[in-house]
């Protein structure tokens, strides 16, 4: 199982890692063409604590550290522009993509350069087998901008994906494995309409009561929970006591509960915890509903 908080903790482990020093800072992809030697921005003899980007890469933190200690060149970006290469062409994606857009080295790029790309980063933070941005889209619910919560993603299918943390004023704080930066970063970005908000977590919607305060001493609560896979209610807590709820439907499910006895006027909290089982992982979330009884 994975929670939203665990996704952020996983992401943070890639932003700052154990210090490492490259033993090698270049890789010759073609001995017959000197322009086809990748010169990493992570230079031999220098010390770093960042995690390099590599298009097609899927290294864990431990795997990455082992690779650089065994003389694998770190990814990032090419520090030496050849033949007027633009900034874009210095990225590892240019070395991966087929001609004429790229140099055509495909999987030889992540085989010979250590690092991780954007969708592999999300997959590892979610604890699932590697999926590309298209496959990530298929396993998630497409949600509204206002529904974004920590651990969800902003996905430009076929191009790039980011992990949402929180709103920072009018901007968004995200984690991403960035080809432009050449590393995993945690920073603020502007809203971009090319990206679609998506979530693998269960989504909650309160149906009843529609408003508070509640005038009935024995109110009925009804919550709709939807997900991209199999949704199950884990538990329900009223105040500090576990309660039994009635669950109906399959997609979405409806959860109903009534106290079964008259409540005294006052403030109460009902908390529901549910999971969405998809892609071999259980994504767990909870939602608390505060209400006032006044009659």
Description:
The chain has about 300 residues and is α+β, with helices and mostly antiparallel strands. It has three domains: about 120 residues, no CATH class; about 70 residues, no CATH class; about 90 residues, Immunoglobulin-like (Sandwich). It contains six helices and 19 strands. A six-stranded antiparallel β-sheet has the order 6-11-7-8-9-10. It has a five-stranded mixed β-sheet with strand order 1-19-18-14-15. Strand 2 and strand 3 form a beta hairpin. Helix 1 crosses helix 5.
What's the short version?
The protein has 295 residues and is of the alpha+beta class. The protein contains six helices and 19 strands. The chain folds into three domains: 2-118, no CATH class; 127-177 and 185-199, no CATH class; 203-293, Sandwich (Immunoglobulin-like), CATH 2.60.40.650.
Q: How many structural domains does the protein architecture include?
A: 3
Number of helices: 6
Percent in helix: 10-25%
Number of strands: 19
Query: What structural class results from the helix and strand content?
Result: alpha+beta
Keywords:
295 residues; alpha+beta; Immunoglobulin-like; 3 domains; 6-stranded antiparallel beta sheet; 5-stranded mixed beta sheet; 16% helix
């Amino acid at each position: 199982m994975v929670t939203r908080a665990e996704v952020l903790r996983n992401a943070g482990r890639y932003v700052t890692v154990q210090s490492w020093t490259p033993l090698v800072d270049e890789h010759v992809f073609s001995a017959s063409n000197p322009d086809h030697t990748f010169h990493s921005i992570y230079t031999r003899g220098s010390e770093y604590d960042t995690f390099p980007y590599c298009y097609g890469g899927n290294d864990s933190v431990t795997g990455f550290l082992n690779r650089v200690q065994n003389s694998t060149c770190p990814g990032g970006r090419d520090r030496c522009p050849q033949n007027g290469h633009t900034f874009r062409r210095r990225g590892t994606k240019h070395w991966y993509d087929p001609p004429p857009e790229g140099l055509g080295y495909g999987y030889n790029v992540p085989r010979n350069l250590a690092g991780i790309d954007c969708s592999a980063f999300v997959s590892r933070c979610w604890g699932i087998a590697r999926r590309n941005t298209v496959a990530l889209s298929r396993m998630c619910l497409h949600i509204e901008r206002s529904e974004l919560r920590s651990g969800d993603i902003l996905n430009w299918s076929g191009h790039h994906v980011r992990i949402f943390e929180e709103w920072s004023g009018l901007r968004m704080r995200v984690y991403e494995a960035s080809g432009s930066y050449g590393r995993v970063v945690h920073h603020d970005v502007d809203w971009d309409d090319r990206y679609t908000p998506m979530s693998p977590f269960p989504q909650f919607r309160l149906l009843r009561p529609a408003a508070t305060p509640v005038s009935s001493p024995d109110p009925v609560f009804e919550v709709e929970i939807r997900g991209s896979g199999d949704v199950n209610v884990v538990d329900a807590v009223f105040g500090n006591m576990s309660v039994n709820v009635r669950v109906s439907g399959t997609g979405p499910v409806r959860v109903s509960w009534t106290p079964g006895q008259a409540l005294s006027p006052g403030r109460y909290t009902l908390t529901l915890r549910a999971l969405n089982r998809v892609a071999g992982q259980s994504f767990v979330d909870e939602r608390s509903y505060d209400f006032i009884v006044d009659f």
